[in-house]
Amino acid sequence: MDIEKLRKITGNDWVVTDRDKMLDYMRDAVFDSVLPSPAENVILVKPANAAEISAILKLANEEKFPVVVRGGGSGLSGGAIPTIDCVLLSLERFTQIEEVDRNSLMITAQAGVSYADLVNAAEDAGMFFPPKPGDAGAAVGGIVACNAAGARAIKYGVTRNFVKGLEVVLPTGEIITLGGKLIKNAMGIDLLHLMIGSEGALGVITKAVFRMIPKPRHSALLLASFSERLEAIKVSAVVASHMIVPLAAEYMDHDLVEMTANYLGTEWPAKNGKAHLFFISTGETEEEVYSQLEEIAGICEQNGALDVLMAETKAEQDNIIRIRGEIATAQKSAGTVGDFMDICVPPANLPALFQSILDIEDKYSTTIPITGHSLDGNLHPTPLKELADRGLLEQAKEEIYSETIRLGGVLTGEHGLGTIRLHNTPLWPDTGIWTLMKEIKKTFDPNNILNPHRVFPD
After folding, report:
1. pLDDT < 70 positions in the chain
2. What is the structure's pLDDT at 428?
């Protein structure tokens, strides 16, 4: 890697070789227990625009050095960690929201814009961006590259459903525009959606056009508590069977919310039970919102709920949502988690998956704390470090993954494969999918320059 050539592209101030000045770039939000080790020979480069990225990638192809892309560093799969000697390409200077178009309900944002800033821009214009990744610092490029989802997927879908256009620098350096502020586009093969969820393997996303929706006028939150964990998940299935579609439906172990409330210095409003569900409803009228939540409350009460509470004020709602959103942070602080999993099955199979995890708990005489999005089939089991201490963590995880696959699911629903899940991909039945993915990668990136050793199993 010719450092002087890189400096000529970006300027001296934007090429960092001092290891002490790039320590914060050597990790993402992955739990320490599974944190990959960064490589020794890393050059951090901070380009200002797509043209500079293009020049860097063309140089990388000439000199055959790899490039790893970094956005907000909020990922939970190790995808932004430079695990090989490389140029680490930070998009932190891509911070402009270029256009807020209320007439088209579209926002154009550069790749380094944070989720929080994107949402604030939308709200200021009376618009709403439904996808909700867990970290407000997540950057636009990473949100698109990982096809982020979050709690609202059950009603509105995932990031893919809201991306209308992209500016991308291909691994070979060409700058292309895909889509745009279009509601309809039937112009050939849809390369736009090939980029979404590709985890940076097919190109560097530098700009995105997002479709918004009008901001809902009213919202409320219902919290229900249950004596047993599986009971709560089964109630979610009953809610789904009534074809009720709230904005969000979340499952949480009681021990986790109590621990997190203590960590945050606040209180969880429900003290009974081993598990909780909360449902958020939004609508144009209060009657619409409360009618839906009253129907859900009735289902919960008929199916053994210990308590059903309505959080009507914004402060009450924000407290519950904040505690749920900070569970992973509290778990990191406690230092007891061995891994943070991201399994997903068809929603109807969620009770069976949950039962399988409980059976694995019993088999290994352990506790596996769980949170999840209870109506979209996505669970986050967090096997504990004590399993690793007994040499059983990988075995327990493989059993959870195997049960997930048996029930028609996938190893990751919203976080991506990154680097930390690649060793589990052999569990996935190989029907030629990996071979096809690798051929697509080779077409876009013949020298395997961009984000190697992630996304695809070697």
Report:
1. none
2. 85
**Which tokens is 74 given?**
């909020």
What is the separation, in whole angstroms, between the first and last Cα of the chain? 24
Predicted pLDDT at 454 = 86
Quote the pLDDT of residue 350. 98
Q: Is the dihedral of CA 374, 392, 360, 344 positive or negative?
A: positive
For residues 54 and 304, what is the distance between their CA atoms, to the nearest angstrom? 59
Give the pLDDT confidence score for residue 401 in this predicted structure: 98
Q: How far apart are CA 113 and CA 144, in angstroms?
A: 12
The DSSP secondary-structure symbol of 139 reads B
- CA–CA distance, 178 with 205 (Å, rounded to integer): 11
206 close to 167: Cβ distance less than 8 angstroms: yes
Query: Which pLDDT score, from 0 to 100, does residue 250 have?
Result: 98
Contact indicator for 123, 97 with CB cutoff of 8 Å: no
Domains contained in the chain, CATH given: 3-90 (3.30.43.10), 97-214 (3.30.465.10), 218-326 (3.30.70.2190), 335-427 (3.30.70.2740)
Which pLDDT does position 69 carry in this prediction? 98
pLDDT in the model for residue 408: 97
Rounded Cα gap, residues 118 and 178, in angstroms: 20
Of 342, 326, 345, 324, residue with least CA distance to 334? 326
**What are the φ and ψ backbone dihedral angles of 205, each rounded to 5 degrees?**
-75, 125
Give the single-character DSSP code of 179: E
| Phi and psi, residue 125, nearest 5° | -100, 10
Whole-number pLDDT of residue 402: 98
- Rg of the chain over Cα atoms, rounded to whole angstroms, equals 22
Q: What pLDDT score was predicted for residue 192?
A: 98
How far is CA 361 from each of CA 328, 388, 392, 397, rounded to the nearest angstrom?
Answer: 20, 14, 12, 11
Residues whose CB falls within 8 Å of the CB of residue 135, separated by 6 or more in sequence, listed in order: 29, 72, 74, 115
φ, ψ for residue 428, nearest 5 deg: -75, 130
Q: Is 38 helix (H, G, I), strand (E, B) or coil?
A: coil
Q: What is the DSSP letter of 72?
A: S
CB 345 within 8 A of CB 407: yes
The amino acid sitting at 14 is W
Could you tell me which residues come within 8 angstroms of residue 52 by beta carbon, excluding any fewer than 6 positions away?
9, 10
